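sry for the spam today, last one i promise. struct tokens for design, 151 residues
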């Protein structure tokens, strides 16, 4: 499937989402519904997403496009944060050897929210942003779903 994209949509408790596959890897999660036919990878991704929504899955096992450079380092660090826990931008910054602001930018550029859990990254004394519709309210809902936020 060189260069060609396939899409599959799901509506979950956090709204409509479309997963995008290219070259055998997931490359994006879009916060909207679009038409598409699931490939075997997308069908598995939808199955895992539903299991996550049902609280039967804590970590995704899918081929993802991690990006390159600092973005890849930050995405791998985010993926290592266990479900139900959070880390600060500063903690990730120390881990990847970059300024906290650059880590925040890399979090904001994450094309695979939920699958690469950027919602688990917060500021030291502030919640941080989130690019999904609903912004930080959706971030809070994801953290409550995972048991990381009791508000």
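last one done:
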């Amino acid at each position: 499937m060189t260069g060609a994209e396939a899409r599959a949509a799901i509506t979950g408790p956090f709204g409509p989402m479309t997963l995008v596959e290219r070259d055998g890897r997931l490359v994006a999660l879009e916060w909207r519904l679009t038409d598409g036919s699931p490939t075997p990878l997308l069908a598995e991704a939808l199955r895992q997403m539903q299991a996550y929504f049902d609280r039967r899955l804590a970590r995704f096992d899918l081929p993802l496009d991690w990006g390159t450079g600092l973005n890849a380092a930050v995405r791998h660090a985010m993926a290592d944060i266990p479900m139900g826990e959070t880390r600060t931008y500063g903690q990730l910054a120390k881990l990847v050897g970059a300024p906290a602001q650059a880590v925040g930018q890399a979090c904001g550029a994450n094309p695979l929210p939920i699958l690469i859990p950027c919602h688990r990254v917060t500021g030291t004394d502030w919640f941080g942003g989130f690019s999904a519709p609903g912004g930080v309210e959706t971030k809070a809902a994801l953290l409550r779903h995972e048991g990381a936020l009791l508000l």
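The longest strand covers residues 5-12. ok im logging off now
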